[in-house]
Each structure stands twice: as C-alpha cells, then as structure tokens.
Amino acid sequence: MTDDTPLKPVIDYRAIARDGLWTNNVVFGQLLALCPLLAVTGTASNGLGMGLATTVVLVTSGLSVAALRMFIPADVRIPVFVLVIATLVTIVDMAMNAWVHELHKVLGLFIPLIVTNCAILGRAEIFASKQPIGASALDGLMMGLGFTAALVVLGVVREILGAGTLFAGAALLLGNAFKVIEINIPAFDGVLLFALPPGGFVMLGFLLAGKRVLDEKLSERKERDTALATA
Amino acid sequence: MSGQSPLKLAVILTVFTTVSASFLVVADMATGSHIALRRAEDLKASLSQVIPDRLHDNDLSQNVFAMDGPDGVPAKIYQASMAGEPVAVALPVTGQGYAGAIDIIMGVDVSGTVLGVRVLAHAETPGLGDKIEAGKSDWILAFSQKSFASLVPGQWRVKKDGGVFDQFSGATITPRAVVNAVKRGLEFVHAHHDALFAKGAAHD
User: Fold this and answer.
1) Cβ(B168)–Cβ(B174) below 8 Å
2) Of B128, B85, B124, which Cα lies nearest the Cα of B104?
3) Residues in A touching B46 (Cβ below 8 Å)
4) ipTM of this complex
5) A34 touches chain B (CB under 8 A)
6) What's the whole-model pTM score?
7) Fewer CB within 10 Å, N side or C side of chain A?
C-alpha cells in the first residue's frame, strides 16, 4: 500500500469526522443531493431509511474506490467510479427489497436514484481516489451520517408541520419495538405546503440560515476566547 | 493526463464492467428467492383485503387466469372458491387520476356485490389525493357491500357530480377517478359474469 502519498502524510481523523458531520455536511455545507433530500423527507422515518441506505453506499464506494485507486487510470476514472457506485446501489436495492421489504416499498422509487447522488461521486473523486482505505471508509461514514442527520432533521420538521405526526412508519424500518416512537399529534393534520417539495425547500432555507447563525456565534466565541487567552 | 493507449483503457473498463456484473449476479442469486417470496406475500395480503379469507377455502394467488380486463388489456383475474364453487373474483382496474394511473384491485362476489377495493399504486398528491389509500383514510371502505342493486349506475359518482361517494376537500379528480374505475370494474363483472365465475376457469 502506498499510504505514504505526498498529499497527506498524517491523516487527521477528527478533521474528517468534523468535515462530514458539520463543516462540509453534504446538505448544509456542500448543498448537494437536494433531489433525494426533498423527495424523501416527507417523514422522518423515510429520511432515516434513505440516509442509512446512502451511508452504506458512501462507505462501500469509498472503500472500493480507495482500494482500487492504483488500478484506475485517470482518463477513465469517472466511468469507473460511476460503475462502482451503480453496482453498489443495485446490490443495496436488491438487499433492501429482500430483507426490509416494507421500507423498500416506501423508498423503492428513490433507491436507484442514489446512483445520481452527486455527493457520492464527489467523495469518490475528491477523497477516496486520493486517500488510503481506512480514511476513505471513515470519510464515507461521516459524510453519510451527516447526510442522514440532515435528512432526519428536515424530515422531523416537515412531518410535524406537514402531517401532524412524527416517525410514522418507524416500526417498518427499525422493528416493532420502535412502535412507541411513532407519535401522532392530536387535532392537527398539518399544513399541506410542508408535505410537498416547495415546503421542503422553504424549510431547508430556514435550516441553512440557522446553521449560518450558529456557525457565526461559534466563531465569535472562539475569537473572544483566543483574545482572552492572549490578553 | 497520463495519455494511456485507448486499447489499454478499454481493457481496464471491460475488466471493471465484468467484475461488477459478476457481483450483481451473485447478489441477484442471494436475494432473488427472498424478493419473489416478499412479492407473493404482498399479493396475498392485498388479495385478502378485497376478498375476506372466511369466504373461500382456496389459495387465491394460485387460482389465477388471464382475460381481457376492464381496461381492455389482458388482466390477471383471481378466482375465490368455496368447496369448489366459485364465490368471488378479484380483478385489477386502472383509474386515470390527477397524476397518472391509479392501480386498483377490487373483489366482487358472485351476486355482483363489491367485497372490497384497495389502491395498489398511485402518484396522487400527498395530503390531498392520497386519502384513497386505506392506510390514510377510511374513504376506500365506502365501496364495500355496494352493488348495482343497492346503487343505480347514476349514483356511482362523487357527491359533487350527484353521486353518493364523498370527494376530498381540495381533490375531486382523484376520488372521481377511483369511483369511475370501480364502476367500470363492476360493469365488467356483470358483462362477463359467466366467464368470470365459471368453474375451473382458473385451473390452467
């Protein structure tokens, strides 16, 4: 293994984690994968299912691309990445159809679309094709978890506002033990707008603005702390 | 870039494609039987919703025959029988909704009474048109026990059109499409009653 690539002699695992989960979050940082994001986040459970499926693909595609990176000529790297990703997505699709069939019925239409999730090809090109296997798998995992978190947060907000329920159908995904987290807000049927993609866009806008504000507050505090420390 | 010969690139791509294809073959072999099983369970579940289990003693999913259905295309008709006597059929019918086809399966007994109707697939607006799903609202249950004896054909409409079936606030096209489709299915059963309820029709 040529782990001694000149690019990064020491791998900063914490930076990879922070990047995927927050700073460079697929949705809130890179603003990628908005199509699946808006399509499946009508409910929190669907968001969680889609997020986990995408995470599996991100981790395995990171692993495969990093493992094969010496054999992939630069000229044809994009077709090879697409091929690897499409193969993995098809396998995930078949596995879900066989073993989590109820969820597959809900998400079925969107699973093949993971192929077109530009975030996955993006990570293969930017990260996995230049980094060792372990770091690439971690990057895939963190990017996937960040994406999952974004899907769940948006799903929670949209489901509460749009349908008046929370985690409806979670038992399909997690097993009957999780029936208890399925909440139905009494006497509130939701505002239709938030169940539809335009409402998803509106909500995404609010969440993005919220992250900006939070980031600003955090950097302000950091500045104040360093100022105090040097004073 | 590195400028490798096109031939070499083609060979590399071929190798990658072949390896990917073999992975897919393995995955298909591992999941195929499970998927077929799940599909059969789905079919059984939706059939038992439109023809109650207590009415028949045969395996519906095995007693199937094809004929030109209500939509003018060959359709799979499931025949339910009790002690060898045909008692009901389940047939598919398609409605044209607000956002494309609405796939419906309906059960009708030998007297021409609707036993149950379920929507199998649709693309209607979430929150408005999707109330046709049994999981979202009781609306679809209104068809049960209805027949041309209990409702004259003119009453097989949504209330807005002078019929007896509710429309949804904000969505009339979807319920109208379902009511029309079910009515068409029932007309089909009346028109082809002998063929549908023929003994042994499903034994091919």
Assistant:
1) yes
2) B124
3) none
4) 0.74
5) no
6) 0.76
7) C
